[in-house]
Amino acid sequence: MIETIKQALGGSLTDFTEVQLKRALVLLAIPMMLEMVMESLLGVVDMFWVARLGVDSLATVALTESILVVVFGVAMGLATATTAFIARRVGENDREGAGITAVQAIVLAFAFSALVSIAGIIYGPRLLALMGASPSVVRTGAGYTRMLLGGSITIFLLFLINAIFRGAGDPAFAMRALWIANIVNMLLDPCLIFGLGPFPRLNVLGASIATTIGRSIGVLFQLWMLFGGFSRIRIHAHQMRIRWDVLWNLSKVGFTGAMQTLISSASWTALVRANATFGSAPIAGYTVAIRIFMFVVLPPWGLSGAVATMVGQNLGARKPDRAEAAVYLTGRYATYYMAAISVMMLALAPQLASIFTSDEMVRAQAAQCLRFISLGNLSYGWGMVLVQALNGAGDTRTPTIINFFCYWCFQIPLAYTLALGLHFGPPGVFTAIPIAETVMTLSSLVVFRRGRWKARVI
Fold first, then answer.
1. I want to staple 281 with a disulfide (CB 3.0 to 4.6 A). Which of 18, 46, 361, 415 is the partner?
2. Alpha-carbon distance values, 159 to 149, 313, 384, 389, 399 (Å)
3. Contact (CB, 8 A) for 283 and 63
4. Nearest Cα to Cα of residue 313 among 9, 59, 24
5. Distance of alpha carbon 196 from the chain centroid
């Protein structure tokens, strides 16, 4: 096992369509877990330092992160399609096709980031106000929001190039790119926020500058790996042109993938908006709780990412039964982990919240939210695995439909009804989360067991 872990961290040329399933899962999941940890830390580190500036600054990060959830949703959706296409080409042993697909993914990253950057720079303060920010929060955080949205090219490239690495079976490169981005961010954050040494004191704006610089350096590393021939996929000069047929097919799957993640991420944004009705403390508490939750569930995220690669590559190698077996194995591991996390969150919710805030009201709201969320942990772990299995097969449409009905048609109305209609307040919002996740998981399981995903052609 120790040797397998070393190979996972160092990178492996293992054929994931042949190697024993448990070994394949370890080799893929460990670097993906650490990649997810690093991605989450970019925001967590910002929140850790910014919390010392006051409630308005913390609310700025919370509301901007809620806006960025939509940006991340688009990037993740495109990344989902990219992983599925790359994995399928690798499973078919079509490295030329994989390289062409990688170029088209990068083209999509530039196209979408241009739209986000222009909108963010021009309308950043208005977006904050739209999310329910008070005038003081808008004054405090306009620069922070503009910087993060204006530098969205780094977000899109990080997500899509890492998706290329994951689909190819090189998750260690994706992990290292996020390591580099985080190290730079962690070093620059306190310097630019508080003006340490020769650095100017930029307050909350300094956090966004540090994050953007960190991501930029991570992207440079990715490009070096991709174009330098270190990855299983190398982009050659003759591949660096638009292939409209490949771009169109990738865009179609990417569109529904983006809609899928947008629907789910926008539902979280809608819940933030519901909490905003009750003041800054519920917003900040909810954001702290979600940050903690997203951090502790990173291992299942890594497992679900691994299963997407395994499904895609094994379908490409015409081994659908092996792909299905990988899903059930991964689902069991995710369930065991989430059961343990439920116990921890129920028992230690206030202590976990106190890591990120010393404000008593914010801490109480965060602890309450964590305990409500923990009630749906078992179904949440299984749901992640099932959805990513369908995505890995290239079927992004089915999870999109499931997400639409479970989140927009069920979770959001339920949250507003409980919180505002029945006057439960923030607990009403929190209650809707585990209920909707359970419905989503059961729906995904029914679809997965029908097996139509095995015949998906991309």
1. 361
2. 15, 20, 18, 19, 20
3. yes
4. 24
5. 31
* Nearest to 221, CA basis, from 173, 165, 183, 187: 173
Task: Report the alpha-carbon distance of residue 312 to residue 203 in Å, rounded.
Answer: 45
Cα-Cα-Cα-Cα torsion 352, 358, 360, 362, nearest 10 degrees, comes to -70
Q: What letter does residue 409 receive in the DSSP assignment?
A: I
pLDDT in tens, 300-330: 888 898 999 999 999 999 999 999 999 999 9
Domain range enclosing 247: 2-455
Residue-wise pLDDT for 383-396, tens only, equals 999 999 999 999 99
271: enclosing H helix or E strand: helix 244-276
Q: How far is CA 454 from CA 38, 59, 141, 303, in A?
A: 33, 45, 47, 20
The structural domain count of the chain equals: 1
Half-sphere exposure of 431 (CA within 13 A, CB side): 15
Angle between helix axes 244-276 and 426-450 (nearest 10 degrees) is 150
Query: Which residue, among 247, 296, 226, 219, has the nearest Cα to 81 in the 3D structure?
Result: 247
pLDDT tens digit string along 194-245?
988 888 898 888 888 999 999 999 999 999 998 887 888 888 888 889 999 9
CA geometry: angle 428, 434, 435, nearest 5 deg:
80
3-state secondary structure 186-229: HHHHHHHHHCCCCCCCCCHHHHHHHHHHHHHHHHHHHHHHHHCC
**Cβ-proximal residues to 397 (8 Å cutoff; 6+ apart), any chain:** 256
How many angstroms separate the CA atoms of 438 and 436, rounded? 5
Two tokens, residue 373: 């969320």
- Compute the distance between CA of residue 401 and CA of residue 345 in angstroms, rounded to an integer: 31
**DSSP letters for 293-330:** HHHHTHHHHHHHHHHHHHHHHHHHTT-HHHHHHHHHHH
Residues 6+ apart with CB under 8 A from 59: 133, 134, 137, 141, 280, 283, 284
Q: Residue 196, exposed/middle/buried by CB under 10 A (0-12, 13-18, 19+)?
A: exposed
Backbone angles phi, psi at 183, to 5 degrees: -60, -45
- Residues 6+ positions from 425 with CB-CB distance below 8 Å: 278, 282, 419
Q: What is the pTM of this model?
A: 0.84
Q: Which amino acid is at 118?
A: I
Backbone angles phi, psi at 425, to 5 degrees: 75, -155
CA separation for the pair 300, 331 (Å, rounded) = 9
